[in-house]
């Protein structure tokens, strides 16, 4: 038994990673931290719903791993909603049509493989932290801030994202940055998300008379010759800097990693954010503020990392 | 040896706790979580400085413990500044005149007792968490917010306050709640501390034409017949609710404990804060928001709790 476990450590096993979104179910075979094969389907490809699509994607990847002579040994799933990692159940995932879905149990029953599951933002944070070398003990806390349709912030402690008392930690987008500000979907006024998410920037640009045809990426590029784009972007940077200042004062992180779609803006985002946070925090040293190198695969790679806990558990069980 | 250690567990040992402030050095003998004797001196009682005053207070308490036939077995110190618990050194404690003081080393050399030291806000948070039963594993995160001259917020994970990468976690008072707001001592505009600390409330009340003679406590009481007091208080509550909303969204705590001098306002503080936070967070369940039962002894009791780590360490060392 020990020999087999040691061989697992030397030759990394292949795992199936699934990142479940409201539009697409993305899957991958991951070995030694690298994606070696992919499969992707529209979430509602099956009339039977998202769960059947996930099974289809897993089945394709399992077949691929068999063909390659390296059968996948476990399944890691990242998904939205209120995810309870212990029971493997997902509640209130409105975009997936799930009220209370026993995701892990169903995949275990179908594929006879161990299954790990967690919230997609936490899975992405896990991968972002690992890729930045922040998953070793005593590296100090770090924060991963993905900016896309919404904005969240995961506090990483020894590389593990804080979950919170009810699994809702990290709802950074609903920090109020402008008193009596714009109405947010959450019902509050002046939320960070309303000003600085990719969705918020596009909506505010159009409301201020900007062209309805531009994507958020194009709005960022149009700044030099478009005063409305410049103003909306400046307000987004100011809102984001207010949020990052609060996060820095509260957590004192070693490092802040920006991710998600908006982070593709690169220096146009990073440089003014660093400058504005530096002005606010003149009274203390700044954490390092970086763009995460991971990109859109953060969720998939995080789903693969979730399966590490399964291996540790089964090793412990087999060794006792 | 084992017998001796077991007897320590059964009959709790007496420890010396010291809470070092810019005005007073407060000391106590603590046994089984209760204060059994006190000693207190002005911090600059000695021309030789704060360190000599601490030694005087410890010496008095050690003598008292000897007289009671229960000699103190360790010293716990809570103090301001940049405290490095590992080395026992304190840097940049401006109110104490310390640039880089080897506090633990000096007390160990003088009294031949083990010494534990940490930041006063973290020590107080440790005690507040323990008194609320939040120091057991898996109780979920909690936040302790002492509101006095300044405002901080300690994130408690299994009852242990987050330290941060450079020992500065918890600087909640410098979260910006009003864009282009009032100037704070930190150089930023619109900090929470400028609006909602006891000092900030007094200053804003006087600047708005209120009587220069009222204490912050009296300003709170004067609300019913003093429109300026009512407005300044309402703005303090709004600022505090903005901060607590952000903390709740980020940490998802089980419980938020309000402490410090301003928490003596009781329901005048608690009820409007709960209502305003409830309005902001209509999209999610609220954490429990309470006033900490500990009061002004939080720092002292926290200093006593710091010595637990010494006992655990020495038990481990003696048993290996």
What does this protein structure show overall?
The structure is a homodimer of 320-residue chains. With 320 residues, chain A is of the alpha/beta class. The first copy, chain A, has two domains: 2-124 and 297-319, Nucleotidyltransferase, domain 5; 136-292, 2-Layer Sandwich (Nucleotidyltransferase, domain 5). The first copy, chain A, has helices at 2-10, 50-67, 103-111, 120-131, 192-196, 198-207, 216-222, 227-251, 267-280, 298-319, and strands at residues 14-20, 24-31, 34-42, 74-79, 82-84, 89-93, 98-101, 115-119, 142-146, 154-157, 160-161, 255-259, 288-291. In chain A, strands 3-2-1-4-8 form a five-stranded mixed beta sheet, with helices on both faces. Chain A has a five-stranded mixed beta sheet with strand order 11-10-9-12-13, with helices on both faces. In chain A, strand 1 (14-20) and strand 2 form a beta hairpin. Chains A and B meet through helix 8 of A and helix 8 of B.
Quick recap:
Helices cover about 40% and strands about 20% of the residues of chain A.
Radius of gyration of chain A: 21 Å
The number of distinct structural domains of chain A comes to 2
N-C termini distance of chain A = 12 Å
Q: Tell me the name of the CATH homologous superfamily of the largest domain in chain A.
A: ATPase, nucleotide binding domain
Poorly predicted segments of chain A: 1-10, 314-320
Second rung of CATH, namely the architecture of the largest domain in chain A: 2-Layer Sandwich
CATH class of the largest domain in chain A: Alpha Beta
Q: How many runs of DSSP E, i.e. beta strands of chain A?
A: 13
CATH topology of the largest domain in chain A: Nucleotidyltransferase, domain 5
Secondary-structure-derived class of chain A? alpha/beta
Please write the string of helix (H) and strand (E) elements of chain A.
Answer: HEEEHEEEEHEHEEEHHHHEHEH
Helix content of chain A: 40-55%
Assembly type of the chains comes to homodimer
Chain pair sharing the greatest interface: A-B, 44 and 44 residues
- Going across the biggest sheet of chain A, name each strand in turn: 3-2-1-4-8
């Amino acid at each position: 038994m020990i020999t087999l476990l040691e061989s697992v450590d030397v030759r990394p096993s292949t795992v199936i990673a699934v990142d479940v979104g409201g539009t697409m179910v993305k899957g991958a075979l991951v070995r030694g931290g690298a994606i070696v094969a992919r499969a992707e389907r529209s979430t509602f490809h099956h009339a039977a719903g998202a769960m059947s699509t996930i099974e289809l994607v897993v089945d394709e990847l399992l077949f691929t791993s068999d063909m390659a002579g390296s059968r996948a040994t476990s399944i890691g799933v990242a998904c939205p909603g209120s995810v309870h990692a212990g029971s493997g159940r997902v509640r209130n995932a409105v975009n997936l049509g799930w009220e209370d879905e026993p995701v892990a149990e169903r995949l275990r029953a179908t594929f006879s493989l161990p299954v790990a599951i967690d919230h997609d933002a936490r899975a992405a944070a896990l991968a972002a932290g690992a890729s930045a070398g922040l998953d070793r003990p005593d590296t100090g806390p770090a924060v991963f801030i993905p900016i896309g349709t919404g904005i969240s912030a995961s506090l990483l402690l020894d590389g593990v994202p804080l979950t919170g008392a009810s699994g809702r930690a990290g709802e950074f987008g609903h920090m109020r940055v402008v008193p009596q500000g714009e109405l947010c979907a959450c019902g509050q006024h002046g939320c960070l998300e309303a000003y600085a998410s990719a969705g918020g920037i596009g909506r505010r640009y159009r409301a201020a008379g900007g062209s309805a045809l531009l994507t958020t990426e194009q709005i960022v590029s149009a700044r030099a010759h478009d005063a409305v784009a410049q103003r909306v972007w400046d307000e987004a940077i100011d809102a984001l800097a207010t949020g990052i200042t609060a996060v820095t004062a509260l957590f004192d992180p070693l490092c802040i990693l920006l991710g998600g779609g908006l982070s593709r803006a690169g220096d146009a985002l990073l440089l003014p954010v660093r400058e504005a946070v530096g002005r606010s925090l003149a009274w203390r040293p700044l954490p390092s503020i970086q763009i995460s190198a991971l990109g859109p695969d953060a969720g998939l790679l995080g789903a693969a990392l979730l399966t590490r806990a399964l291996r540790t558990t089964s090793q412990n069980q087999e060794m006792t």
